Amino acid sequence: MSITWIPGSRRRGGFETRPHMGRIALGAAVLAIIVYLIFPVIVVLAISFSAGNFLTFPPPGLSLRWYLAIARDPEWVSALKVSLQVGSLSAIIACLLGVPAAFALVRYVIPAKALLSALILCALVTPPIVTAISTYLFFVPLGLNNTVLGLACAHAVSGTPFVVINTAASLRSADRNLERAAIIHGAHPVWAVLHITLPIIAPGIVIGAILAFVHSAHELLVASFVLGGLGKPVAVKIWSGVQATSDPTIAAASAILIGLAILTFASAAATQSLARRRNA
Amino acid sequence: MPLLLLLPCLIWISFFFLAPLAAMCWRSIASEGSSLEPYAVLFTSPLYTKVMLTTVKTASIATIGALVLAYPLAYVLTTASRRLRALILVCVLVPYWVDIIVRSFSWLILLGDNGLINRMLMRLGVIAAPLALLYTAASVLVAMIQILLPLATIVLFGAMLRIDRTLLAAAKIHGASEWQAFRTIFLPLSLPGVYGAGLLVFVLALGFYVTPALLGSPRETMIAQTIMVEASQLLDWSQASAAGAVLLLITTVIAALYNRYFSLDRLWGGTDK
Fold first, then answer.
1. CB pairs < 8 Å spanning A and B
2. From the list A36, A107, A128, which residue is nearest B209 (CB)?
3. How many CB atoms lie within 10 A of CB A61?
4. N or C: which terminus of chain B has fewer CB atoms within 10 Å of its end residue's CB?
5. Does A131 touch chain B if contact means CB atoms closer than 8 Å?
6. Number of domains composing chain B
């Protein structure tokens, strides 16, 4: 069953012009939609390199002054540092929780598996404001508010699904016979998993961890309740800046986050193609 | 063994996610001698009725808008050549991983009185004075649809990939035009995916905070903003908790519905398809 049908390749008769028109219209519509998707990202990137004092697009000239302004401002530097700490800590926790969970979900027959995976994923569809106020109220008696650890613990919950999904995907496509071969030759099953399977699925885990990190760096509401005072992370700092000021510093800070997103995407793509090459 | 592997994850989620939610729901009814007063306020005050209506209306329009734009994009993704598909996917996924604050902020710049769109229209002579594009329902929707579009596209694309394309080829062999094959075969087969993507996008749209706060006027206030004001400015935690509990209930019902028919775990994840 492998009839591959490639749309554009079909030869058309001269009288059949309407599908062709439809194709052009579709192409134009898709192009317009992509412009609509990408343009706002380009605008922020362009303004971050602006030489002017205001948020105008196109910028009057190019410079790096707003990036320098961020690098020289101790508040921005500390915000970036806090985000880095919270993001890495929550990504590490998410891996420690998510990788074993993915193993259990992929490799074993578990009662109520659908319910369990839905439970792991549901943090992603819960409205952030609900998570934010409930976490804040819950953290008050525990003394976890205003701590990096507290925010990392809360962010780990929404980071875990990214790790579970990507680890599970690599695990499903990994060749289990390699692990079986090691066990037949006398390896302890746990040793086989740690030394054979884990390196094979590492790209999936890494992608999951990166996505968990980016998710944490972008998260605003839980962050502003739990860590909204002194030592706020960069998303909270950008949000207060967006509401108050109108110089391109915010655009530069945003551009740093966009750079992070592109880096994420590139590294995810690179890890994937690396894994594919290794498998081939 | 599987239980042992799942246990850390389940304990963590129970403690840092479910317990806080339960405590919040408990607080909404048990703060001042177990009264249901916050709920009475919620369902009788004109403020909450209006905000809830605005929230549902905005989320619905944004969902429909995102689906209408995502459909052709996902369709082209399924038919495109390998290289074109990769290119379009980059254009879809990069904005997906750009912060919601940043994307809303960008629309603030574009739609302002001195923004690109007003200046272009004025230079073209279409308008004499800048249009008030910002702080309207339209500006909120334009940004929300742009923000929800990548997810809608990815989910729809995943669903469309599962459609057996040989059916379309069969229809054409039997004389159907491209449009006929699309309308009678591809479109009906893709509808479950459309409903699934719609539910998912709608749930996310209900909880939007940043975009209406930045680009809307008080008339466009959505429920998340009201909860934020109750909690952080009025410090009325039982009222905030009650509103949060209702919002939680609504989203849980929709998510459960989605999970029942489409299974949550099949569709999530930017790179996992």
1. 277
2. A128
3. 9
4. N
5. yes
6. 1
Cβ contact A233:A86 at 8 Å: yes
Does residue B24 belong to the interface with chain A, where contact is any CB pair within 8 Å? Answer: yes
What part of B 42-71 touches A (C-beta under 8 Å)? 69
Q: Please check whether residue B201 lies inside any domain of the structure.
A: yes
Taking the C-alpha atoms of residue B255 and residue B262, their distance in angstroms, rounded to an integer, is 10
What ipTM was reported for this prediction?
0.90
Question: CATH: 3.40.720.10, 3.20.20.20, 1.10.3720.10, 1.10.357.10. Which one for A74-279?
Answer: 1.10.3720.10
Residue A167 burial by Cβ neighbours in a 10 Å radius (0-12, 13-18, 19+): buried
Domain-located, residue B10: no
Domain enclosing residue B96, as ranges = 36-267
Across the interface, whether the CB atoms of B21 and A134 are under 8 A apart is answered: yes
| Angle at which helices B82-96 and A249-279 cross, to 10° | 140
Do A46 and A254 touch, CB atoms closer than 8 A? no
- DSSP bridge partners of A62: A50
CB contact under 8 A, B259 and A114: yes
Q: Is the CB of residue B208 less than 8 Å from the CB of residue B59? A: yes
Residues near B101 by beta carbon (within 8 Å), at least 6 away in sequence = A218, A220, A235, A238, A239, A242, A254, B210, B214
Nearest CA-CA partner of A161 in B268, B202, B2, B156: B268
* pTM more than 0.95: no
What residues in B contact A162, CB-CB < 8 Å?
269
Residues constituting chain A: 280
Q: Which residue of B has its CA nearest to A172?
A: B272
Task: Looking at the complex, report in whole angstroms how far the Cα of residue A185 sits from the nearest Cα belonging to chain B.
Answer: 23
Read off the CATH number of the domain in which B73 is found. 1.10.3720.10
Distance separating alpha carbons of residues B129 and B113, to the nearest angstrom: 9
CA separation for the pair A237, B3 (Å, rounded) = 41
Residues of chain A with Cβ-Cβ distance to B23 below 8 Å are: 134, 137-138
pLDDT by 10-residue block (mean), chain B, 273 residues: 88 96 88 74 89 96 97 92 90 86 88 85 84 89 96 91 89 88 91 91 95 92 94 89 94 87 56 33
Q: Where are the domains of chain A?
A: 74-279
